[in-house]
Amino acid sequence: MYPLYFRSVSTRAEVYSPLQNTAVWLAAWLYGHESADALIGAMTELHGRNSYQGEPLTHLLRDVRAATDLHTPGPAVRLILSGPGQAPELPAGSAAAEAAAEVSGGSAIVLRGEGGVSHILVPDSSDEQVNWRWFEEPDPLPAPAWLTPGEADALLSRATNEAAVLIEAAGGTRADLPDPRLTVGTLADFYDTPGLPIGTPPRAAKLFARADAVAAVIETVVDRLGDHSFDPQLFGLWRHIRTARMAGVADAVLDYQR
Question: What are the φ and ψ backbone dihedral angles of 17, each rounded to 5 degrees?
Fold first, then answer.
């Protein structure tokens, strides 16, 4: 039997974070592709009411603009996701890592600052609102995988195919929903809300779409159908979904930088 720990975990929390689109919107705004009003609208739709040190979202954006180094080569904005089998790319024992583990499931947005300093934004969410917490880390963060979109897409595709083969060999899942395909499509649409900024590179958008589709399938089987027969196969995909999302954000940020 698969460990009960996994059965108590929310599937959606493991395969989706609004920080994916938030990071892309922040990068589009920082590099002049989107207005502040568009960014604020997207962040409100993603997180509800945003606050920062007791002040409105505009104060956070002011500090983000002032702190982010947009000139050094490499992504100025990074997405960090973590979960079972995937430690967060934050210094172990740091205040940022502890806060992320406590309030956001190990998720964060990292802004590259001057002199190698990393500015780490951790969302503390509750009741359709989020309070953004800011941490600074002077030491280098753990190195990310830095997969290309093609590499991340290939890994996710291969893992999905392998899981499908195992499930099919075992007789497939039961289908108690009136229309499982419609449920998957509806959930996939949810994951993409409120969409991506204008100018998001097609490679990143494709990678996000594949991650959304695989996440929707997992949620349909595990949460909507309540079928835990294939938890080991499906939960093994979580890490690849998170990695694909991080790689897609890095690609979008680099494209905005050009």
Answer: -145, 135
Token output for 129? 């609102």
- Is the pLDDT at 122 greater than 90? The verdict is yes
Query: pLDDT at position 95, please?
Result: 95
* Stretch (H or E) spanning 40: helix 36-47
Q: How far are the Cα atoms of 118, 148, 155 from residue 244, in angstroms, in the given order? A: 22, 9, 8
Do strands 129-137 and 77-80 pair parallel, antiparallel, or not at all (unpaired)?
unpaired
For residues 252 and 190, the model is more confident at 252
Residue 121 burial (10 A CB sphere; 0-12, 13-18, 19+): buried
The rounded distance, in Å, linking the Cα atoms of 227 and 204 is 31
Where does the chain show beta strands of DSSP type E? 49-52, 55-56, 77-80, 108-112, 118-126, 129-137
Q: Do the Cβ atoms of 207 and 35 come closer than 8 Å?
A: no
Name the β-bridge partners of 136: 119
Comparing C-alpha atoms, which of 196, 214, 218, 193 is closest to residue 205?
A: 196
User: Using an 8 Å Cβ cutoff, are 50 and 130 in contact?
Assistant: yes
The residues, any chain, with a CB within 8 Å of residue 61's CB and separated by 6 or more, are: 29, 36, 39, 40
Q: How far apart are CA 47 and CA 121, in angstroms?
A: 14
With beta carbons less than 8 A apart as the criterion, state whether 52 and 134 touch: yes
Rounded to two decimals, the pTM is 0.85
Per-residue pLDDT band at 160 (split at 50, 70, 90): confident
Per DSSP, the three-state class of 81 is: coil
| Residues 225/177, Cβ–Cβ less than 8 Å | yes
